[in-house]
Amino acid sequence: MNDEKIATPGEFLGTSEEYGGGNGTFERNGNVYASITGKVKIDSEERKVEVEPVTSSPPIPETGDEVIGVVENVKDSIALIDIKSLAKEKERELAVSEMGALHVSEVSEDYVEKIKDKFNVGDIVQAKIKVDEPNSIDLSTKGSQLGVISASCSKCLGKLKKEGNKLKCTNCGNVESRKVSSIYEKEL
Amino acid sequence: MVKVEKPDEFIDEEGKRVDGRDLNELRPVKIEANVLNRADGSCYIELGDNKIYAAVYGPREVHPRHLQEPDRAIVRYKYSMAPFSVSDRKRPGPGRRSKEISKVSEEALESAIFLEKYPKSVIDVFVEIVESAAGTRTTSLTAASVACADAGIPMRDLIASCASGKIDEEIVLDLNEPEDNHGDADVPVAMMPRTEDITLLQMDGDLTAEEIDEAIDLAKEGCKQLYEEQKNALKSKYGGK
Description:
Chain B: Keywords: Cytoplasm, Exonuclease, Exosome, Hydrolase, Nuclease. The complex is a heterodimer of chains A (188) and B (241). Chain A is mostly beta strands. Helices cover 0% and strands 44% of the residues of chain A. Chain A folds into 2 domains: 2-52, CATH 2.40.50.100; 66-148, CATH 2.40.50.140. Chain A has a 5-stranded mixed beta barrel with strand order 8-9-10-12-11. Chain B is of the alpha+beta class and 241 residues long. Chain B has helices spanning 96-110, 136-150, 177-182, 209-237; strands at 29-33, 41-47, 50-61, 74-81, 121-131, 160-167, 170-173, 185-192, 197-201, 204-205. Chain B has a single domain (29-238), classed as Ribosomal Protein S5, domain 2 (2-Layer Sandwich), CATH 3.30.230.70. Chain B has a 5-stranded mixed beta sheet. In chain B, strands 6, 7, 8, 9 and 10 form a 5-stranded antiparallel beta sheet that branches.
């Protein structure tokens, strides 16, 4: 079998004695089959066969991934963020939206006294996954790209424009402090 | 309304059918994967005069929430005929017929999908019949399974589906419109071709036990031919052999 072979779901890849099944495969009755459409990758040293998807795949958030979410609640030392999609794959929704926690110590490299000074409910945030465990995702917004990427005024719900490190309302002139991302309003 | 007339004979002396096909021959088929931009996976299929789009969204969050299953994904399949898809205008929206087809197709499709990989989510499948000419439920399923594969949803196998039926005392494959309207029986079959597991089997009309067996066997042969076309559609889209 050459490396560039494309398998479709249900295609026979080999027997269980030949290969262990990796991602994109399943075993049935001692045989290994492809479960998705993709390139067949055979690791002859590890005796392992994998199918690398050529189609788009349902996104699964993992540690280190950048995600986009909405701030749902701001408490004393944490902000709860409803994770909506992966930053690299905005077109596809997540199968299940999950809550991520952003601790005040993970907001920025500088000292942040209150998380209320940096986030507000309804802000759209780009963040990185620090710890990914079942029912507990810890996020971080350390880094210039990370932080609020879209927000509206807390007084009049007008559009906020970036001015240095602050956000200024285009409607009422109210100035708000946020952890603003370098891509604020650029990629939405 | 343009009525499909009943021909004097369905099969001529040379054993050819009204459209010139052999008894065990499918109508010409064309399948293309990934045709819709906004869908996660999609497929366009033509089988004879049938023209059908299938779109897949998800796995995504379930709304309303109470439909959610804690240990697996659910599949929602919507079969819908465009008002202009038939010779008489079809009143748009779900009806008795399309609700039934949606239900049986949903069950046929979900048995091929590894639902347990995406708990609490939903896979939405929308099938739109743009032009209809007999055998739309089977053709829709064939397209829907290619669309699921195009969406990267892990599956045990593709679902291939076609119908067989009885005309002039003969069992034939893939009924066309006059044969479907005026024939004696119609047997739609869907299966996973690798294991030959049947996931949908219906019957309209009267057949003897022997004729049913013959019809199922014939439809299985048709499904296997369609399976090759489905694989070709996916492989040619994504540049493999």
